[in-house]
Amino acid sequence: MKKGKKIVLALLTLCFxxxxxxxxxxxxxxxxxxPGGDYTFENTEEPLAETDADVTLDGSFDESFYAADKTxxxxxxxxxxxxxxxxVRMAVHFGEKGTYFxxxxxDAQVNFNAANRVNYxxxxxxxxAAGHETNAVGKAYRYTFSAGGxxxxxxxxxxxxxxxxAPYGYAPRSAIVLKGGEIGEGCTGYKAEIFIPNEAxxxxxxxxxxxxxxxxNASYSSEAGxxxxxxxxxxxxxxxxxxxxxxxxxxxxxxxxxxxxxxxxTANGGGEAVYDYDYTLNGMANGITITPEAxxxxxxxxxxxxxxxxxxxxxxNGVSRYEFTGAGRDTAFEVTxxxxxxxxxxxxxxxxxxxxxxxxxxxxxxxxxxxxSLQTATVSYEAALEGDxxxxxxxxxxxxxxxxxxxxYTLVSEQITLGExxxxxxxxxxxxxxxxxxxxxxxxxxxxxxAYDSVMxxxxxxxxxxxxxxxxxxxxxxxxxxEVRFNYDGDRYVRLQLMNWKGSYCVKLVVxxxxxxxxxxxxxxxxxxxxxxxxxxxxxxxxxxxxxxxxISVYLDDGDGFDNVLEQTAAWLKEGVLQDVQVRKTDDNLSxxxxxxxxxxxxxxxxxxxxxxxxxxxxxxxxxxVCDGVEVSVSPAKVGQQATLTVTAxxxxxxxxxxxxxxxxxxxxxxxxxTAYFYNDIKVVxxxxxxxxxxxxxxxxxxxxxxxEARPLSGGTAVELTLSDGAYxxxxxxxxxxxxxxxxxxxxxxxxxxxxxEAVSKSYTLTEDTWTGGIVTAGGTLTTGMSSMGSxxxxxxxxxxxxxxxxxxxxxxxxxPASGSIEIGTRLFFNNSENTxxxxxxxxxxxxxxxxxxxxxxxxxVSLNNVQDKFPAVFEYMMTEKKIHMIIAVDGxxxxxxxxxxxxxxKITDTNVTSGVNETFNNxxxxxxxxxxxxQAKKNTETSVVTAxxxxxxxxxxxxxxxxxxxxxxxxLTVTVSKEVAAYPDVAKLTVKINGAxxxxxxxxxxxxxxxxxVWAYYASGTGRMLGTVTxxxxxxxxxxxxxxxxxxxxxxxxxxxxxxxxxxGNEQKIFExxxxxxxxxxxxxxxxxxxxxNGSAKGEATTMGTTFTGVVIVDFGNNKHLRVxxxxxxxxxxxxxxxxxxxxxxxxxxxxxxxxxxxxxxxxGSATSFSIxxxxxxxxxxxxxxxxxxxxxxxxxxxxxxxxxxxxxxYVGVRKSGSSADLVxxxxxxIVALAAEQATA
Length: 1242
Hints:
Structural class: mainly beta
């Protein structure tokens, strides 16, 4: 801040210098005379912010809204220094124009000097923020005022408050008045009434609530320059964990006043009980003072309905005090006074000891008795002891007879009523002599976080003890930390925490002057069983403290008994005195309630066996579902003993008994026995049978219902309902789930019912979303994790109840890895035994390979290798679409895998019959009777995003329909073809291809999933041509293709390697036949010929035709008539293109010849390594040309009409050669395309 001031000062200096230069420049020629006229200037003051009409800002607080019955005042006495306490009362009022604070301060040491800063005088700092802001920056303001009238206005900026200027005309206002006299002359405090306009805190309307942080400055000198002061933040000292910069944790005020928990005290006649404050906050200290009238004493003191008189501290005047801490809830106290009777009676007798091992002698007993007394809540009457006799007198009334040992603990504590003289001999048994007795702690339901609640009403004087108690809360999610705290003198403690911290279970000890210790309850240290016992609803915990050794031990139950799971040692326990037992919780879900129940202390014993053997088992009997006429009783039992439950009912009444959630069977008629646990939640359901009737409506076109069952919620055999007159019915008792099962084995939960002795009728309407047409869309979308399999679908309201079914699933990946690998796991999970499943692991390597790991749990893991080679269409689809569409089908004890290849689901089997893959799919014995419970997926790397979705379930005969279905939206494609030239060959069939997979159209139609497909047409010979592509998006399409020379008409001829055959008509090698081309009359024939060397077995380099060469093309029209074309080279100086019409005997009917000489390319022909012949027949005329190098020689308009007559259709085309050397081989490739009858003209 100092640095910032220096910068501002430098800027101001610079601005002043520039201004002075500017003024100097402008004042170069000052006027000779002053201007005429009169001028005045008045410096007006800023107007005061206007208050509401019903408010007079005078510090008197006499407005009606400040009345105690209209608003709840804040009240707190804060010790500033030793011997100096100030008390502050405060109210908040929300007006239309702003917010008002009424602050009343009691302070016997007020000091002020105007020369001192406001916070070095007696003053109050009022910090506040509108609403429930979580960050004070720019939202919190501070108004500081002193007893002498100083004020200061700040805003919270960064980490502290800084001076702040309010908008013009809206500065905060206050009226500050002294109480009792002037400062230094009888002043007892001061009051301030403060107005904060809405505009001053950047609001356009008054807030509904205000968060307040209250501070005080106690000044100890009125001298100028004095800095003797003490600052205290009330929020910090009054409550626990209030944040300086977190307004949402401050005191809260709304239109009802201070928001706090109420404290109420009621008392009958005979005295008074007064609280320190009428409210409490979480962690706030408070207290009750109880003063009996003369002749009265306290008979009872209760907190929230529970006796707490043992916690009262009573002085020599009979005044009792109880101090407590706010726990985030309302607290009610009830005090009962009783008159002290004028009638006095005596209790007298002897004391002795029974016979047991280690029993003391009578002399040892007499020496050990420290005192015998009669005690009330606040008064003790001591007995006179003489030998082994005692006598104690007290007014008539109820007392606790207590015998204390010189060893420092209680031997006897029992209730006794005096209405006459009582003779009572005291005989100590082993437990009494050893100081072993139970002290019951209060049951308590903790609903708020952080604050401790006391559960101890009766104190103990033993330093060694065993604690046992039930902690009941759902432990199975989030973070929950129930805690039992044992408070000792000297602010020392032992804290026992039993927690689930984000899925990690542990038990922890936090002990004063010791390091924290904890035991993790997981499988790695063989303690998972303890956590499993806690998950559903908590459990019982035992803690022992041996004061002599300082050892603290914690015991938990793993289902087979209690074991020591954690220890700590604290030397101070040897002398420590237990003062209280408290409970609390820390919970990330504030709606959870933690029940601390059945808690006890067992004094002077750390043997858990002895503790359990002497403890009365808690019997919690629930008979809410027992009908009239049925009697239920349970015998008391110690923990570990057999307890007996008796249910007396008529024979027709159905009885179900559960103990701690487990159903037990009758051991004899009407009798149920069980081993008593520490707590025993016993539920008895007893009703006579009654009719249950259900009607079920199924949508038309969907599967019929095969049966309806009632399945007991507590487990057991399902009851199949009888169908009659369109309704299903049965006689039932108890609670059931009602299920409908389809003909194919799909099951749906219809609802739950409770039949308790009265007839029940239900109507259920199934819909297309809740029932099945054979194939059901199930589950949702799962973004897979790495730690374990996640479920896309789980059985719950739906189930598969047949041995023939299939599950379809889609797994998508954002991108296949460019390096490294990824493994995507999927499985079907079953319920017949632990961890039974059918599992597939798709393992992809960035090199472009994939294998599938396969296991059926009962067989070893096997690998289907080289998916990219064995199933190329499937693999290509996975890579291109970044999806794996799969179906796992189960039929009895066999199963199958189908993967989508772009056109259909392809069954996967291994061509390597020794891999073991195919055997893994068969004879899986555990599948018999197994029920599918989940469809799951996972991944093995965080670098890829993998989602699983699109789960579908098919049952029974519908499995084949699922396999024939499509994983995406499907629609029909219609393909039509037309010929550009009618003479083009007909299309023998149409197909579509994707990723190498191919499927034929039926009558030009096919149904396709979403994707881009190639459309192919095939000739009768089986050769195919791609016509184009089509992209399907779930909507029907018609695709029209025109067959052209490019895509259809140009047929590929048979490739010929050499044509050296015998001369003569009919000996040539055929490259086209009519069966391939059709009966063409107009066509274009192109023949390409390559010349290569030949070594007798293999083709070599390109070469020339040599000195002599004849290449012959025969175009046969049938009826022994053909067109012959010769490329004839006689020598190196002369060659010719010869076109002839010949009949069957080979005689030439007509010939044209085009010579090739030096003038038109004989040298180019001699050096050519290839040549082409083109023959066009159209409209009865032929044009023939030969091309070599850059030369073309043509014979045009060769008339065929008269020669061919009516037989003008092409029969075949053949080639041969002659006249060349033996080391020359030719390769012939050719195409032919149909032409229109008339040649197109320009």
